[in-house]
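dude i think i finally got it to work??
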Amino acid sequence: MTSPLIYVVMLTWNQQEDTLACLDSLSQVTYPNYRVVVVDNGSTDGTALAVKTRYPEVEVVVNPRNLGFTGGTNVGLRYALAQGADFIFSLNNDTLVEANILDELVAHAALPDIGIVAPKIYYADEPERVWSVGARRHPLTLEMIDKGRDQIDVGQWEQVLERDYLVGCAHLLKRSLLEEIGLLDEVFFLYYDDMDFCLRARLAGYRLLMVPQARMWHKVAASAGGVGSPRERYYMARSSVWFFRKHVRGLRWLVVLPYRSGSAVKTLFRLGIRGLGTTARAYLRGLRDGLALTGEISELPEDTFAHSVDRS
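look at this
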């Protein structure tokens, strides 16, 4: 019996070395029926040519410009669906995967109500420190809780867990899920799109699983300029405002608005005492631009913060 076809969709923007390293790890994957498509988001460092040269069997789609994480990933998702994929493994290019990752993920995805399955993810520079095991969602604030981030793994995350949120760094997506709820919301451009997508999946009745026997390692915020960079803070702020505008209704605002306002004040205070004035201004600009979003796709922001495809 033929195994389900899995398409690995990898988005890249000017990270040739990381992309090739990720493909090197994927070349060791033991699952018998998978293909890889690299979606290049308008790189200028020769990434697409380097991929074709080292891995001629890898399919490459080149976008003429940076469409953001959401727009670029959606190009890959549409491509994989058109090729008849049963599952799509959406994977960050700044990651390294264990050889059995697809075998473990697809083994837990058979039930019809399972929509997304994700691995346990570690920091690449601290291979035993947890970066993500998914999370539960607070019923009032919609914030992520029980995340496990930064814990040293000593066996406390060895059970398959049902989660409300799985970080979009690595999602095994069922075809039926995408056909029912659609693709990523491109208004986000970068960040919070995975929170939105997971919430939409849960609202549609799908379950989300974290499978700890599937493991990978992530170079956090590599293309966003690093955690706390102006680019990262801008898009975190902008997308967070859009996420809560999109999903909060009625009396829930009485809880969410004070909570989010307090979070913004704390963020600005921390940036201020660290002397990161440029980053603080980028964060404020992101909050402002998030309030101005209309929910329609128009011109993508062409500014100093617009060139990134990573998520953290």
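DSSP finds nine helices and twelve strands in the chain.
im so relieved honestly
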